[in-house]
Every structure is written in C-alpha cells, then in structure tokens.
Amino acid sequence: MADRYNDVGGSGSGVNVETTVLGADEIILNMGPQHPSTHGVLRVKLRLDGEKVVGSECVIGYLHRGVEKIAENRSYQQFAPYVDRMDYVAAVSNGLGYCEAVEKLMQVEAPPRARVIRTILTELQRIASHLFWLGTHALDIGALTPLFYCLREREEILKIFEKYCGARLTTHAFRIGGLQYEAYDELEKDVERFCKDFDKRVDEYESLLTQNRIWVGRTKGIGILTAEAAIAMGVTGPVLRASGVEWDIRKAMPYAAYDQYEFSIPTRKNGDTYDRYLVRMEEMRQSRKICLQAIENIPAGPILGKVGKVLKPPPGEVYHSIEAPKGELGYYIVSDGTTQPYRVRIRPPSLINLEALDQMIRGHLVADVVAVIGTLDIVLGEVDR
Amino acid sequence: MKRYKARFGGSITEAWLDRKQAILVVAADRLVEIARYTRDEERFDLLVDLTAVDWPKREKRFELVLILYSFPKNERLRIKALLGENEPVASVESIWPTANWLEREVYDMFGIVFEGHSNLKRLLLPEEWQGYPLRKDYDILQQDEAWVRENLGIESGQ
Questions:
Q1: Could you tell me how many helices (H) and strands (E) chain B has, helices first?
Q2: Which of chain B's residues have a Cβ under 8 Å away from the Cβ of A385?
Q3: Number of folded domains that form chain A
Q4: Apex B61 CA angle, B140 and A385, nearest 5
Q5: What is the pTM of this model?
Q6: Which residues of A touch B133 (CB under 8 A)?
Q7: Which helix (H) or strand (E) holds B148?
Q8: Which end of chain B has fewer CB within 10 Å, C or N?
Q9: Is residue A184 part of a domain?
Q10: Would A162 be classed as within a structural domain?
Q11: Could you tell me the end-to-end alpha-carbon distance of chain A, in angstroms, rounded to an integer?
Q12: Looking at the domain assignment, is residue A279 inside a domain?
C-alpha cells in the first residue's frame, strides 16, 4: 500500500517503479488529483531534480465509471446519452461518433439533411471545445483575460445548442439513424450571426497572445513532440498536426457531410506548445468556414432514417472513428444480434494523448508541466471513462 | 491478405471483411512477429487501439484486438489473437510504444497478462482491486466490497 505513494519511474520509460532509487538531490512531488491546473482529477507523480523533471507517472482512474461495462447492459439507444459524459466539453462530437458507429454496424445511413445538421453542430462544438481549451490553458499559464473572451463566445454556441435540443453541455443531440429534433427556424441565422464576426474574435485572442512575450516564452520550445514520437505514441488530433503530420479523419476518411465542404488542415513543424496553440487557433477559423458553407445549403427531407424502434444489428463488429476536437475518437462495437451491444470499446483521444505526457515534460521545469498538461487538452471524464 | 498467408502460412487462421473492414486472426504465439511485419513492411505505423472481447463459452475465451492504421495507405486493419483463460501473450510495446497503457488497461479489465511488458499493473482501477470488470462473468453490480469498505468507508456497496 505504502509504495503507491512513493514510486515514480516513468510510464513509457521502462523503469521499474518499485525499484527506482532516488538520486541525492531528487525528490518526489505529487501533483493532483486536486490541483487547479490538472483540469479534473489527474494525478501526476513527478520525480524532480531541483525544479527539473526527471521522471513522471500519471495516476488515473479517479473518474472511472465503467462506461464500457454499462454499454453491455443497455440497449443501443439507451447507451447514447452515456457517451456525452465522457468528453463533457464536446458532447456533440461523442454522440456523433457513437451514432455513426451504430449506423455503420446496422448498415444504414442518416439522411442528407441530418448529416449536414450534424456537421454544423459538431463544428460548432469543436469551436466551443477549443475556446474552452484556450481560455483555461491561457489561465494556467497566467493570462487571465482570454478566459472571459473565450467563454463569452462559447456561451453563444451553447445558446444555439440549447435552442436546438434544450441542453447546453450533455446534449444528446443526435439519434441513431439521424436526428431526433428538426432544426429550429432561426438555426441558420444564429449560426451565421455567430460566424460573421467570429474571425475577428479569433484575431482578438491572437492579439492578446500570439506576440505576447510572456506567452511565447512560456510555450515556445516546451513539450516538444517530434512526428515520429507522436506516431509511435499513437497521438492524434491537433497534437499530431502540430508535429507536422497532415492527417485529419475528416479528410482521410470523410464522415457526416465533410466531403462536401472546403477546408484545410492546419499543420505546424515544431511540435511544441506554441505550435499546438497556433494549430488550434487556425482550426477554429476552419470550423467557422465549414459552418458558413454548410448553412448555405441545408438539404430538405427527412431527418431520421429507417431504423425502427428496436435496434437489432446483425452479428458482427465495426470500428468507426471521427475527428473529435481532441483527436481520434473511435468506437469499436461488437454485436451478437441482440438489442444490447456485446462489447463497446471507446478509443478516447485524451487517454492516448496523455500517455505522451511523460516524454514531453522530461527535462522541463515544474511550471512547464502545467503548460504541457494544458496543451494536450485532456478531459478526465474521457481519460477515465 | 495474400501476402500475409504467403509469409506466415498456417499462423493466419482466418481473414475476412466485416462491413468492408479487414480483419485478420493470427496465432497468438506469433503475434509479435506478425505485428513487426505489419508495421515495417505493410506500414501500419499507428496503433490506434488495443482491446479485448470476452467470449466465455468459446474454447479460447479472449479475443485480443489490435486496431491499426496506415498513413501511407490510408487504410485500417484489425488483427486478432485468440487466448485461453490463463494464457499470457507477448507484449507489442516494443513495436508500438503506445501499447504500454492500452495493455495495462486490458490487463486491468480482463486479466490478460502481457509478457515482456515494462510496467504491467492496473491502469484505471486501484492496484489492490480484486476481479476483472469487463469479463462477462463479472456482474455490473459486482464490486470489490472489501476494498470499498477499507478505502472508502462505505459499508455495503450499492
């Protein structure tokens, strides 16, 4: 029992934690699980030489709710709201991934109108998630102001969600086979109004940070992840793209209605915290572009495909993944032909991105650990499930 | 598929497409070898996910599932290996370092032991927890009551 609080080797390092011997100047520092910068209940055991990190180990699971076990004991429709509680700042994306995975398992497709509305809401969610990331990440590093601006714009998006489905965070916006709710009358107008000056808002955030000497000093060259290391660690999403790998599931394996819209995949070369910041800023602009194109032409027609009230997918299995704001969110679902999934495995981007933390913070200072945790954009609900 | 069969012969026990997704079942004792070939020759450089499925009524109850992605080919592949109840399997951590946590999670939830893993211990549950929750014979309301009582001070669970 006592060992649990003292051993620090390194999660990816191959050091046997039980037998790690500390150097003369080394100490163990426990960060979290109750720490303002860990964005939830993440505990990181740091092995320090002075203020330099020489090893670390993440202790996770404080928020484990056994989502995958719950899935095996619920019907396909009943499980849908549970996925919203994983990445609770991007619930719409979680729902999209799950619904599309089950649709693929049943070999049905959502009607075109549903797919376009899904795309709009998911892109708004991406913006909201990135805004929340930016606000809290900047706050961690010491810039207080961006948080207020970011939450102001995020509020606009949450209002659109609220008008659409009645909920702001855990929205359960989509249904298997399409949508439950028809878009409200002013949806296009609301989205357009938000998008119209959102570009200027992003400029505003950038004017606060991009050239800011403190910001640049705290983020440039911190937590570098090379492209090879990123791929080896299975990292996806903006973190991978900031390391120079131009890969986005929206382009590589288009889902929803992404093949109809023009947008680019922002990438950067250095793979440091500053580059990850720039990639996400540009992604927000691209998401805005997708939204503007999508509201131009929302096809008419039904919003729910023919799926029936009782879902009994034929036996078999499917893996489907989407580009969630944090990276590749995948669902591996096995059906045994009954109304309940036999097995649901959720591939959480946050968990796998967090695994790279250890190698990103080695050699940096304790204060940089805060910056790197922020830049990974983890949500503990998704890490622990 | 053909290349795999030519190279590994009888070690590729099954290969099929399910919903247009490629699945390959391989012999568990050659998993690492096949994995290395898959990464280096077939260029599936990203281990997307590693998980397991429990089929208690089958002769070999566990299905270990590796979900792979190839950047150059833009393709996905699933490799499966069948394992018996107390049958360990070699770790693929040396091929895809990301397998470290993923294998720990499978060990945590299913009790599958990975040989050659650098730090095989539970990932999400507490280290002293008894039982493997994602096995089918572990009921959804079941928990390690002794642990809960001792560490959380809750007398009678749910």
A1: 4, 7
A2: 124
A3: 1
A4: 40
A5: 0.86
A6: 66, 69
A7: helix B145-152
A8: C
A9: yes
A10: yes
A11: 25
A12: yes
Q: Which of A1, A234, A385 sits opposite B98 (nearest CB)?
A: A234
Percent of residues, chain A, with pLDDT higher than 70:
95
Question: Is residue A224 within 8 Å of A334, Cβ to Cβ?
Answer: no
Tokens 């008894």 belong to residue: B130
Specify the CATH number for B2-124; select among 3.40.50.300, 3.40.50.2300, 3.30.460.80, 3.20.20.30: 3.30.460.80
Domain limits, chain B: 2-124
Contact: A319, B21; criterion CB under 8 Å: yes
B87 touches A: beta carbon within 8 Å: no
Residues of A in contact with B19 (CB under 8 A): 104-105, 107, 316-318
> Are the Cβ atoms of A355 and B134 closer than 8 angstroms?
no
* Cβ contact B51–A318 (<8 Å): no
A233 to B76: CB separation less than 8 angstroms, yes or no: no
State pLDDT tens for residues A48-104: 888 888 888 888 888 888 899 999 999 998 899 999 888 888 899 999 999 999 999
- Kindly report the nearest CA distance between residue B6 and chain A, in angstroms: 26
* CB-nearest partner of A355 from B98, B125, B128: B98
Chain A: nearest CA to B49, how far in angstroms? Answer: 6
Range of the domain at A307: 67-384
Q: What is the pLDDT of residues A175-196, one digit of tens each?
A: 888 888 888 888 888 999 999 8
Max CA pair span of chain B: 59
In tens, the pLDDT along A262-291 reads 899 999 988 899 999 999 999 999 999 999
Question: What is the rounded average pLDDT for all residues in chain A?
Answer: 87
- Which ipTM value was assigned to this complex? 0.88
Residue B18 touches chain A, beta carbons under 8 Å: yes
Q: B39 to chain A, minimum CA–CA distance in Å?
A: 11
Pick from B49, B71, B125: CB nearest A332: B49
Alpha helix ranges (H) inside B9-140:
31-40, 99-110
In a domain, A168, yes or no: yes
Specify whether the CB–CB gap between A50 and A27 falls below 8 A.
no
Cβ neighbours of residue A204 closer than 8 Å, sequence gap 6 or more: A149
- Of A38 and B90, which is predicted with more confidence? B90
At A204-254, the pLDDT tens digits run: 899 988 888 889 998 988 889 999 999 999 999 999 999 999 899 998 888
Quickly list H helices, chain A. 67-71, 76-83, 91-106, 112-141, 145-165, 187-196, 198-209, 213-219, 227-232, 238-242, 249-252, 273-296, 349-354, 357-361, 366-376, 380-384
Contacts of B124 in chain A (CB under 8 A): 60-61, 64, 384-385
